[in-house]
Amino acid sequence: MSAWVTGANGFIGRHLVRELAGVGRTVHGVGHGALDPAEARALGLQTWINGEVDAANLSALAATHGLPSQIFHLAGGSSVGLSIARPFEDFSRTVTSTARLLEWLRSFAPESRLIVASSAAVYGADHAGPIAESAALAPMSPYGHHKLMMEQLCRSYAQSFGLHCTVVRLFSVYGPNLRKQLLWDICSRLSSEERSLNLGGTGAEIRDWTDVRDVVRLLVCAAEEVQQEDFRLINGGSGRGTSVAEIAGGLIRNWGSSTVVRYSGVARPGDPASLLADDGRLRDMNFDWRLPLERGLADYVEWFRSQARA
Amino acid sequence: MSAWVTGANGFIGRHLVRELAGVGRTVHGVGHGALDPAEARALGLQTWINGEVDAANLSALAATHGLPSQIFHLAGGSSVGLSIARPFEDFSRTVTSTARLLEWLRSFAPESRLIVASSAAVYGADHAGPIAESAALAPMSPYGHHKLMMEQLCRSYAQSFGLHCTVVRLFSVYGPNLRKQLLWDICSRLSSEERSLNLGGTGAEIRDWTDVRDVVRLLVCAAEEVQQEDFRLINGGSGRGTSVAEIAGGLIRNWGSSTVVRYSGVARPGDPASLLADDGRLRDMNFDWRLPLERGLADYVEWFRSQARA
């Protein structure tokens, strides 16, 4: 069975390709980033097209390798900050690329299963406690707005043209090879042996942390499930909330450091106090999260140190 | 004061240009459709650029005429049927053009007032009675989904970049020069002297009919109003519901015909039983609808006959 991955050269994309290849799929990818054929093969990719998600590249893949059974659509903007600095670029990466992909699927591969990675950013900052998929949607950034527009386009093509689409709203995904965001920042500071670590916010911000290796199993699982409706939304979170202070503490413990963390105490504007999944739909799927946070943090620290040595 | 109109060569656009020129504005337009300079001037346009709503054309207008005080954004898909036949084209016309316009405004004219024509199609088919702007949104076609995505992009740019944007959701706009949809179809049949007139649906479908000459006054009025918030949504409907059967009866009466209308009795899939505005926000603005339906239908019949003779 053949699977295509857009954005296969990104953080989640690379893990997903490895997972798919590991369960015996033939994997082809398209998206941005140079990968020579040896690198692509080492990753698990039989083909890599470094370019836009557009009809020309998708048809080129199909001409050589046939139509895919499943397409995992991970291409898109990946940074709130960049979406504010360059909103049109984020729009193009997230929304226009999805429009091109859906139109190509409608025309050439309407039976393929489409799995789309969206984000909990669509929920915005006003939710307390677990957030169900049906909760109010109020994105706070172009990044979140564009993800929501992407979801809506998927819903439209499923509704009008019968495409089979599952949107997975990812929460706080971390893990080996993630070179940005909270865990990266903390480890970078620990690595430069700062005596004390000053972080923005209060430390009490709750997030739903998920290890990328579990997340890619979830994406594969969502693609396998019998799908009753053409369009389906799933929260890709664990339903367990952990504060920023607990994450910092866990990393410091695993590092064997005695660094003290201080928080500015000032909440960052637009930064949600809590972003936690209602995981009811995942429980209905019997999906099991296998990597508890303590293990995930230990692995992250180990990876960080190994890449710092390299 | 200078106003720009995108899609100025469309049905509503042409009426809007006339209205703006009539109240003393200098009007420039960009959008699709050939207009020679004499035609453009006769319409009330000082400049017409036949092309995409994109940075090149917008900057060309600004270089010659300075920045606009107001931009009326009417360019976009205008047919549910075409949006199903060619969804990517509808997406490009409605969503991508808006993305380009917003990005240009952010970069070059963040103080301009933007008035965007959206559609009651964003509400979908499940509402009974007057629909408030806060009602659930469930578009039934690519056309409606793309209008909703367009609204969301406007909200995003207003929220993140302080653009001043008013979205007006138009209901069933009719009037002189509209050469499609219900009124056109009925008059065309009356004109071919059909003995009886067979229409789809039940005749009981309720719509909020508004004469285009009132609608363009509303758009101008919305642009003038003091705006407290950067982003504002307004239903552009009258709050009065009229059935398809009443419309057909009114046209036949004005025509002086004795044609009998028959309905298939079968509701068209996706066709809302009722699409009626809650007009609370327009009442707060003290906007007055001046052309009652009976007058509007009489004018439409008169226009239809005059153009048929021409």
Automatic annotation (TrEMBL), chains A, B:
Belongs to the NAD(P)-dependent epimerase/dehydratase family. It comes from Bradyrhizobium diazoefficiens (strain JCM 10833 / BCRC 13528 / IAM 13628 / NBRC 14792 / USDA 110). Residues 5-228 form the NAD-dependent epimerase/dehydratase domain. This is GalE protein. Pathway: Bacterial outer membrane biogenesis; LPS O-antigen biosynthesis. The lineage of its organism: Bacteria, Pseudomonadati, Pseudomonadota, Alphaproteobacteria, Hyphomicrobiales. PANTHER family: DTDP-D-GLUCOSE 4,6-DEHYDRATASE-RELATED. Signal peptide: none annotated.
